[in-house]
Amino acid sequence: MDHYCVLGNPVAHSKSPAIHARFAELTGQAMDYSKQLAPLDGFTATLQQWIANGGRGCNVTVPFKFEAFRLAGTASERATLAQAANTLKFGDGGQIEADNTDGIGLVNDIQRNAGVSLAGRDILLLGAGGAAAGVLGPLLAVGPRRLVVTNRTPAKALELVARHAGHPSLRTLLQKTELLAQEQQGLEANFDVIVNATASSLGGGTVPVHASVLKPGALAYDMMYGEAAKGFADWARAHGAAPRDGLGMLVEQAAESFAFWRGVRPPSAQVLQEMRKALV
Questions:
Q1: Which of 225, 24, 6 has the alpha carbon at shortest distance from 113?
Q2: Residue 256 pLDDT > 80, yes or no?
Q3: Which residues does the annotation mark as catalytic?
Q4: CA 225, CA 245: separation in Å to the nearest integer?
Q5: Which residues pair with 8 in a beta bridge?
Q6: Which residues touch 174 (CB under 8 Å, ≥6 apart)?
Q7: What pLDDT does residue 280 have?
Q8: Which runs of E-coded beta strand occur in 11-116?
Q9: Are 208 and 236 in contact, with CB atoms under 8 Å apart?
């Protein structure tokens, strides 16, 4: 039996163990998956203990994705671009290999599950932390017309945009996509898609931008799910947007992590449908 977990703080709310247990059942994989709370100043020690106890891999959630990347010996291109990792795999000698499945999980949920094409659209990304860093590259890869990053601390948004704008792998993509950072107060209106990658929903905080950013019928996507996403969804709905929570992203990024660890692609659409019914 191989052992995996999700490491984060907070982590009690996570649905990842249920998702991976179902993936394992449907694909016949001998593995278990648990939650591990890491102290805010003790991620490295918690991770090293997990490896010493025989763990084969883990998912990493807030606020440790940047730290997880720095601890890895090798990393995928998408993790390297993000400078953040949400998925770690451990070799027999304790080597750490990093990946970031957040972005492809988000894109797959929006385009495949929600049926919203992102090509040629105007997208607003809220946040510049590990979650935003993980999705910016994959969002650029689908060819939006404009992608704006905004953050409470403008310098972090500028740094994230500058790092992506200067990356050789994105040079061709950026010939057709305008990528820029803007301050929250100076945002231009009328985005087709707004993605909330901040932790404001976890803390029950207010939406950090004015509702004028939303086009009528815009997709307003919160990476949080369940009760944590309710405030953002209510805000979006009240201003004529179509809200969607991050449960589909959670399932889709988990499927990518599962394939990274096990070499088998689980049926994510089936598991998402089952999870939606369980939350009703």
A1: 225
A2: yes
A3: 65
A4: 5
A5: 37
A6: 140, 165
A7: 66
A8: 31-37, 57-60, 74-75, 87-90, 96-99
A9: no
Angle at 177 between CA 175 and CA 182, to 5 degrees: 125
Taking CA 231 as the corner, what is the angle to CA 225 and CA 234, rounded to the nearest 5 degrees?
A: 105
Nearest to 180 by CA among 154, 200, 152: 154
Query: Listing from the earlier edge strand, what are the strands of the sheet with 74-75?
Result: 31-37, 2-8, 57-60, 87-90, 96-99, 74-75
What DSSP letter does each residue of 221-262 carry, written as one string?
A: EES--GGGGHHHHHHHHHTT-EEE-THHHHHHHHHHHHHHHH
Pair 40, 95: CB distance under 8 Å: no
Q: Is the pLDDT of residue 188 over 90?
A: no
Per-residue pLDDT at 203 exceeds 70: no
- Quote the crossing angle between the two packed helices 247-262 and 16-27, to the nearest 10°: 50
- Name the helix (H) or strand (E) containing 278: helix 268-279
Q: How do 96-99 and 87-90 pair as beta strands?
A: antiparallel
